[in-house]
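Record pair follows.
FIRST:
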Amino acid sequence: MRSVLSAGDIRNKIKDIIDRLYLNIPSGVGSHRKDLKLSRNELQKVLVKGAEWAVENGYGSEEDLRFTEDGGRLDSAEPDNVSDKAYERGRDQLGTVGSGNHFVEIGVVKEIYDSHAAQAFGLFENQVTIMIHTGSRGLGYQICDDYIREMMKASAKYGISLPDRQLCCAPVRSIEGKRYLSAMAGAANYAFANRQMIMHWVRETFEDIFRTGGHKLGLSLVYDVCHNIAKIEKHTVDNKDATVCVHRKGATRAFPAGHPAVPEGYRNVGQPVLIPGDMGRASYVLCGTKRAMEETFGSTCHGAGRVMSRSKALKAAKGRSIHKEMEAKGVYVRAASRETLAEETPEAYKDVSQVVHVVHNAGISTLVAKIVPLGSIKG
């Protein structure tokens, strides 16, 4: 999200903003909303409509949908292919931030690399931004868990030899493949709705603190992009047009200028690409490219990636106050637990700046802006 605010406008308010966000947006393992428990029938509508459901129910506007990948809705969702247990887990988790590396972060644009693309995306130096990273919560996790068992059986059924059980699979056009893709689309739509609702509560928090309307603060969506998703797309393979299933696991879409899936307002520069880093260093906005379409099925990296396991990070943080270390760096953080902060300590991740320069130099997405954190709520 972008704003019309500059760093100086919130410097003395950052703790208040983060504390209020922490109160307004539940976060962490098992977090749920006491004020929003959906019936199964209503939850099925969420799985079908995605962010459209959220907008129809007063969380944001049609303008938001124009700047969301696929308009915030995958049409292939089939709610009947989602288990009762998944429904139960997702019933009260809409509008919440997941655990681990999920977050809502207030940042400021530190550097502009491509002024033309930055202008198209509405970004400028010293601008206050908000980045939201969360997905389909327990519902999506349960769908994955349910279908792993199905895929194990399907692999044997179709005579697929597995070098690793985690590669269990089924042909895309098989009954099992179709069922999984339709359930996964429902999880993706739940995630679209989840982020849309969180964005709404971010706006409400800022409006409350600044005592003015969100339109005066310029709180608008730059882009909502997926990762950890499989999508049916058209690509050129061996100089021929082909319809393929593109799996972006730990990857994100990076479509180029002129592509019809890119929002009209960005079509002359390309799709915004969001690559978050750790809570102590930086995140980046990049632009999709033609080379990505030629070499990586229109994809680039999603984030920095860990260099320490969570258990190793916990050991490395023993006896330290990560909260105070972050505050000394000028970043105010609230988290569901001390363990979460320890697991997410910046040293547990690769330096995202090195990562984004690799993809920039490879030409599969190009640098637009660097954003440094001021404050964050972590799951």
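SECOND:
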Amino acid sequence: MRKISIVLFLISSFFTKNIFAQHASIAYEKEIAEWHSRRLNSLKSEYGWLNLVGLIWLQEGKNSFGSGNNVKAKFPAESISEEAGYFELNKNVVTLHINASTAIKINSDLKKEAIVFHPDSAHQPVCSYGSLRWSIIQRDDKIGIRLRDLNSATVKNFKGIERFAVDSNYKVKAYLQKNTIPSSISITNVIGQTNAQKSPGKLLFTLQGKQYALDALEEEGKLFIVFGDATSGKETYAAGRFVYADMPDAKGLTTIDFNKAYNPPCAFTPYATCPLPPKQNILPIAIIAGEKNYKGYDH
């Protein structure tokens, strides 16, 4: 009788553990699905990447703009006056001059002239006309217009992003091996600019029984990783993917969840300036987790 009780107890324990494991798996898949849904909503939002319709680099001096053919900064056809005014670039400061016949808002206020970019400003103003929105960005020695159209066909035709099946094996513990002295790594972007960016250290982790390392950057209070792997250019975007990790705890530990690996903006639009993974961040294994390559944009 005692043996029967022990057997029943073991069977009960086995099924209880299986039930807990199933519940944990369902909860984790739900977490990833919710994260992915937020990601898609962000892409389709006013400041998402799908509505970009232009990235126009400015030249020193006057840069006329509008929808006509005789301007330096050409906006989409019939989206604004043929000659709407001009941007004046003067030693990294950009002033927008608007023609009297064109009603453009700058941060919701109608104006005819305003500084729209200053390198010392934390936030640059947003200009709007109809469904168009634009602001000025700086990339190293280049300053340009980032142009959006809220009625972009890319947003309207967006059908989502394919992703690999959720696999908890790709949610791994990682140890941040901090740099003993302030250090930086060279990051090159898609337009060929290379800059040294501060790195807090390497993230060491084990996957499929082997240890790997990824150099991390720091962004918005999190660790930011630009990486490539054996799926790059096949199932996933050729120029790599991004993933965030929380800052490490007191023991230097954090988690990298590759199920939340996602495509850079350049997978969706030619009007972005994405960083490329440094060679030491190209993993020799396939990370079969996270987003697959976006098929709606012909690269």
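COMMENT: The longest strand covers residues 171-188.
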